[in-house]
Amino acid sequence: MKKILTIMICAALLCSCAAQPNTKTEPTSKPEAIETEQPVKKEINEDAYDGLDNNGTGWGLVRKKGEPPEIPVEQQRVLEENGGFYIDKRGGKNLYLTFDEGYENGFTDDILDTLKEKQVPAAFFVTGPYLEGQGDLIRRMLDEGHIVGNHTINHVNLPKQSISVMRDEVDGLSERCMELYGTGMKYMRPPEGEYSERTLAAARDMGYATIMWSFAYKDWDVNCQQGADYAYEQVTKYLHDGAIILLHAVSSDNAGALGRIIDYARENGYTFRSLDYLLSE
After folding, report:
1. For labelling alongside 32, which of 71, 146, 147, 248 has CA 20 to 30 A away?
2. Among 12-21, 195-204, 221-230, 244-253, which stretch is predicted with the lowest mean pLDDT?
3. Residue 142 covered by a domain
4. What positions carry a catalytic annotation?
5. Residue 20 has what pLDDT?
């Protein structure tokens, strides 16, 4: 009998750890052709969100082999009404690779090498310490055409913050990215995978698209890596049309399996897209 595995996936709490040493890669040039733009900021009134539900909700899903996951209709509605995505519902065999980056564990260069070799775009959702401490990797991401997304400065649980603190955490990271690398951020992923109607509405009004996911697995525990074959099996058996795939770059399993995952997906008719394709007509 086909088994359905119920999971609750949250972004790794390890993102609050300090940046760790990494093998540096010098950028070949300053990122000049990056299309990511600084979101247009609006003046928002914190009182305007008082009537919105602020109960924290974890992004829960039921994975199904070869099919989109089961997600409560109400969760889908709230996300989509506030300009967010967890899947590309337009049809077609499109895939979106996304990585969460809270600290560097030495595998991001390998991941970028594979993405460059395979000519696959990806998005990397980073925290403040990562943005500040991993300049060579951030520049490489941008130079090689990837998106650097917003995972807040301090990886805070957003429903537990005031709107003003949320804005400091999210806009502050985007503004710092502009200062350091000449580009802002327009995609946001809530830390711990937890959100509320209020935080989604505020993110939308700040000019960000909230990016959740339709696939993830327990890959963030660096003390519980099970090998590249395990990662390959976990990802490939749950591929589905329009999937937004969440992986953690701290995982040696993911780094080791990524090339094979990409090859398998392409052999089965999938095309890897940039998140910008989600916002296209």
Report:
1. 248
2. 12-21
3. yes
4. 100, 248
5. 37
CB 249 within 8 A of CB 108: yes
Give the type of residue at 62: V
- Specify if 59 maps to a domain: no
Is there a domain that residue 165 lies in?
Answer: yes
Domain assignment of residue 42, yes or no: no
Domain extent for 187: 77-276
Q: Which H, E and C letters describe the chain, residue by residue?
A: CCCCEEEECCCCHHHHCCCCCCCCCCCCCCCCCCCCCCCCCCCCCHHHHCCCCCCCEECEEEEECCEEEECCHHHHHHHHHCCCECECCCCCCEEEEEEEECCCCCCHHHHHHHHHHHCCCEEEEECHHHHHHCHHHHHHHHHCCCEEEECCCCCCCHHHCCHHHHHHHHHHHHHHHHHHHCCCCCEECCHHHEECHHHHHHHHHHCCEEECCCECCCCCCCCCCCCHHHHHHHHHCCCCCCEEEEEECCCHHHHHHHHHHHHHHHHCCCEECCHHHHHCC
Q: Work out how many domains the chain is built from and give that number.
A: 1
Phi, psi at 68, each rounded to 5°: -60, 150
Q: Measure the CA angle with vertex 106, ends 104 and 109; round to 5°.
A: 100
Residue 243 scores a pLDDT above 90: yes
Q: In the prediction, which pLDDT does 281 show?
A: 62
Q: What is the CATH number of the domain that holds 210?
A: 3.20.20.370
Whole-number pLDDT of residue 36: 42
> How confident is the model over 17-68, as pLDDT tens digits?
333 333 333 333 333 333 444 445 566 777 889 899 999 999 989 999 999 9
Q: Which residue has the tokens 């600290």?
A: 103
